[in-house]
Amino acid sequence: MLRLGRLRPYAIWPNKAKYALSLLFIVCSLSAYSYEVRIRIHSAHRVESALISNKEHSYFVLASNAKAEVIDTVIDLLNTNKNAIVLKAKGSKIQLNRGESNLGLYQRLFISAEDSLSIFSIKADKPERLYKGHLELWAQDGELILVNVVNMEEYVAGVVESEGGHLPAYEYFKAQAVLARTFAMKNLDKHIKEGYNLKDDVSSQVYHSMARHRYSDNIRSAVYETRDSVLVDLNCTPILAAFHANSGGKTANSEEAWLSAVPYLRSREDSFSLYGPSAKWEKRISKNDFYQYFASQMGLSPQDIELQKAILNISYGKRLSTFKCKGKSLPLKNVRRHFNLRSTFFKVEESGNDLILKGKGYGHGVGLSQDGAIIMSDKGYCYKEILYFYYSQVDLEEIDKL
Q: DSSP label at 156?
């Protein structure tokens, strides 16, 4: 069964108390005493070919069999200017090319990093992405499966940047790091039968590159300061680390977005999220389309005056999860999905033949509000206060104690 594995600690680690913290030390130490995770990258679209090269330090291309046992060293990537390789899926095998040379067909390939500072680049019908760690590849039905084998803390740093690394809010970075790590630990077995732990898209959590942009130094420092910490419930089990862009001023109960009530995901007033780039939105929709949709879903007539009045009475004085009329109901999350709304937290106003939906927030509203957490960070709240504000009946715990 696929499980997390320990990485070998670097020799510098036992002497860390003798040295002042530096950025280089933090970068290197993200790998120390950390777990490995297996993340399928470019998972949101079909990949049939990929261009791969190393950016920093050496990589080695190894061939392996169907059991992932290494059987041969295919190529040694040492020269960063001449090392690009092209991989193409050919049924259930991978064709490997470098320049004009066809290096053969393989069942599986393993691109192995020389050390923790090695970085590889990958282009697969998308802008270039950079990653640390190793890369495993295999093919099925003419599609490449690419799996980044990377230590947990490097993965967490990449998630924090991908999910919300656009503003310099240090305590928010720490809170988001704890949540990213918690989500990973909670969902390690999600894709275990497919040969990896998680995907890199919104079905897991977004991980589109190693942390490398404007605030990556701050993100890496935040990850280091919260290393190995996860958020757990009263049973010392990693929580469902739900978060969203903006609550609009009030978070939602878990059952309003999903099926069941979760004790630590309770609705609460959130004044911090009344501000921020995702705090408010508007959308104009024709009356006919809006009434027709509600009527078709509820078995009513779009000309039903009682139905129309009930729709016009939707307001965000109270965050609702379900619209009700004449003893029938319609989940507002269905309305959000059908009309591509930012949230289910809105009120309705008439405007001629149209309706104007004036909404608050962005996302399902459950758990941490990223805009709210960023504002809390700006106001001087620490990451623990941020986490305890958005989640109830939880505590921080070390991975090793789970």
A: H
Cβ–Cβ under 8 Å, residues 70 and 63: yes
Query: pLDDT digits over 342-368, tens only?
Result: 999 999 999 999 999 999 999 999 999
Structure tokens at 14: 């036992």
Q: How far apart are CA 395 and CA 147, in angstroms?
A: 32
Predicted structure pTM score: 0.85
Paired tokens of 72? 């041969």
Residue 316 and residue 247: Cα distance in Å, rounded?
12
Question: What gap in Å lies between CA 223 and CA 251, rounded to an integer?
Answer: 26
What the block records as the tokens of 386 is: 């941020």
The radius of gyration computed from the CA coordinates of the chain, to the nearest angstrom, equals 24
Positions in the chain short of pLDDT 50: 1-29, 31-33
Q: Cβ neighbours of residue 81 under 8 Å, at least 6 residues apart?
A: none
Q: Are 229 and 221 in contact (CB under 8 A)?
A: no
Collect all residues with Cβ–Cβ distance below 8 Å to 95 and sequence separation of at least 6: 87, 88, 89, 102, 104, 105
